[in-house]
Amino acid sequence: MSKARVVIGSDHRGSDAASSIAESLRRAGHEVTVVASCDGPCDYPEPAWKVGQQIREGKADRGVLICGTGIGMSIAANKIPGVRAAVVHDEMTAQLSRAHNDANVICLSADLLGARIMDKLVQVFMDTEFEGGRHARRVAKIGEIEKGHDPAAHAVS
Fold first, then answer.
1. Of 17, 23, 128, whose CA–CA distance to 69 is shortest?
2. Residue 121, CA distances (Å) to 94, 97, 125, 128 in order
3. 130, 99 contact by CB (below 8 A)
4. Is 38 one of the catalytic residues?
5. Annotated active-site residue in 89, 100, 107, 154
6. Whose CA is closest to 82, among 62, 112, 111?
7. CATH number for the domain running over 5-128
8. How far is CA 116 from CA 11, 24, 148, in A?
């Protein structure tokens, strides 16, 4: 991806990783905003909401969320219409989350992944474009679910 607007959020378990990833993304030429990074205890739905709102409002192209496992962030962020947040744990899942699912938010585990691995996963996530084709139809069906529609009952082109 060419230079993008990236928004980053973390709970207290991911604050160090968030700072490191923000610096890596800035060095790569991306415009980076850290909307939530907690030094003391905080609850992951709060940064997930802040990042998700930036994506939903078109203020950011991609998001990065970091908590202990990445799971809580993903669950919370995916409640926001227009957000497709994926927990990734290796280069393959980072690549496929973009290529097949058009994920716009990557969720990482601060407890299970090291700093170098997280940097690499974010790099792969940022560099991978959505393939479209049959995958576009499936992503459109996710949009139908967000509207409260049965995706099988609605024609999606």
1. 17
2. 6, 11, 6, 11
3. yes
4. no
5. 100
6. 62
7. 3.40.1400.10
8. 19, 10, 40
Residues counted in the chain: 157
The rounded radius of gyration (Å) of the Cα atoms in the chain is 15
Which structure tokens are listed for 64?
């990065």
Reported as a single tens digit per residue, the pLDDT across 18-58 is 999 999 999 999 999 998 766 677 889 999 999 999 999 99
The token pair that represents 69 in the structure block: 């496992």
Question: Which of 12, 30, 38, 67 does the annotation list as catalytic?
Answer: 67
**pTM score of the predicted model:** 0.93
Q: Is 148 left (phi over 0), alpha (psi -120 to 50) or beta?
A: left
Distance of alpha carbon 105 from alpha carbon 100, whole angstroms: 14
154 assigned to active site: no
| Domain residue ranges in the chain | 5-128
DSSP string of 61-129, one letter each residue: SEEEEEESSSHHHHHHHTTSTT--EEE--SHHHHHHHHHTT---EEEEETTTS-HHHHHHHHHHHHHPP
pLDDT tens-digit profile of 116-156? 999 999 999 999 999 989 999 999 999 999 989 999 887 76
Angle (nearest 5°) at CA 11 between 8 and 16: 70
**Angle, CA 94 vertex, CA 92 and CA 96 arms, to 5°:** 65
